[in-house]
UniProtKB/TrEMBL annotation:
Source organism (scientific name): Entomoneis paludosa
Keyword terms: Nucleus, Ribosome biogenesis
The keyword Cell membrane is assigned to this record: no
An annotated GO cellular component: nucleolus
Protein name: Ribosome biogenesis protein NOP53
Biased composition (Basic and acidic residues): 1-29, 125-139, 225-238
Length: 238
C-alpha cells in the first residue's frame, strides 16, 4: 500500500481504539467523585460553630437560676369532652380529605393512561427516526464504516483491519508485501452485507442443513455371503 494511505488508516484505527478506551473508562468511572474541598471546609466550619453554640448554651443553662415547673391546670369534664370531640372531627376531616384525593386520582386515571400512551408513541417515533438515521449513515459510510460505527457505539464497533508497521514486511524500502489478514473477498462481502449492499451469507451450519435437505435419499445395500454373491442374494433397505 501507499505509505501515506497506510499511515492514514493506522491513525483511524488508533482513533477507534481511543474512543473505545474512553467509553470503557467512562463506564467504569464512579457516579460521584466524592465531596469537594470547599464543601468539606463549609461542613467543618458549620460543625465548629455549632459546637461553640452548644457550649455557650450549656454555660447559659448552668448560670441561669433554676425554675420550678408550673403545675398543670385542672381541666373540667366538659372541657375534656369538647377537646375529644374536636380531635374526632379533625380526624374525620383528614380521612374525608384523603378519600376525596383518592377519588380524584381514580377519575384522572384514563387521562393518565392516555398521556402515557401518547408519550410511549412519541418515544417510539423518536427511536425509529434515530435508528433510520443511523442506518442511512452506516449505508452511506463506504470505506469509513468503522469510524461511523465507532462514533455511534464505541464499545461495539469493530476494529479497523490494518497491519501494524512491525507486521509489514519491508523489501528494499517498499510496503508492497504485507502480512495478510483474513480473506479479501470474504471481508468485502461481509462489509457489503453490513451496509445492506449485498445479501447476508448463511452460516456454514445453515448451508450444510440446506444442502443435506436437498440431497436425495440413497438406498443402502446389504450383501449376503461375502464377496461371492449373485444378483438375487442381497436385500435393498430403504
Amino acid at each position: 500500500p501507499d505509505p501515506k494511505e497506510h499511515e492514514r488508516v493506522l491513525q483511524e484505527a488508533v482513533a477507534v481504539e481511543e474512543r473505545r478506551n474512553a467509553a470503557e473508562m467512562e463506564k467504569k468511572a464512579p457516579i460521584s467523585s466524592g465531596m469537594s474541598e470547599a464543601t468539606k471546609a463549609f461542613i467543618l466550619g458549620d460543625s465548629d460553630s455549632s459546637s461553640d453554640e452548644d457550649e455557650s448554651d450549656l454555660e447559659d443553662t448552668e448560670l441561669a437560676p433554676s425554675k420550678f415547673h408550673k403545675q398543670k391546670e385542672k381541666v373540667s369534664k366538659s372541657k375534656r369532652n369538647k377537646q375529644k370531640r374536636a380531635r374526632h372531627e379533625e380526624r374525620e376531616r383528614l380521612e374525608a380529605k384523603k378519600k376525596r384525593k383518592l377519588e380524584n386520582l381514580v377519575f384522572q386515571l384514563p387521562r393518565f393512561k392516555k398521556e402515557l400512551k401518547k408519550r410511549q408513541e412519541v418515544n417510539k417515533e423518536i427511536k425509529e427516526k434515530k435508528q433510520k438515521r443511523d442506518q442511512e449513515r452506516v449505508e452511506g459510510a463506504g470505506t469509513q464504516i468503522e469510524k461511523v460505527l465507532s462514533e455511534q457505539d464505541p464499545l461495539a464497533a469493530p476494529t479497523v483491519p490494518v497491519a501494524l508497521p512491525s507486521e509489514v514486511k519491508r523489501k528494499e524500502g517498499s510496503l508492497r508485501t504485507i502480512v495478510p489478514k483474513g480473506d479479501l473477498v470474504t471481508d468485502r462481502m461481509a462489509s457489503f452485507a453490513l451496509r445492506n449492499l449485498a445479501p447476508r451469507l448463511p452460516s456454514q451450519a445453515a448451508a450444510h442443513r440446506e444442502r443435506m435437505s436437498r440431497k436425495r435419499r440413497r438406498s443402502k445395500i446389504k450383501v449376503k455371503g461375502g464377496k461371492d454373491w449373485r444378483g438375487d442374494d442381497f436385500v435393498i433397505i430403504k
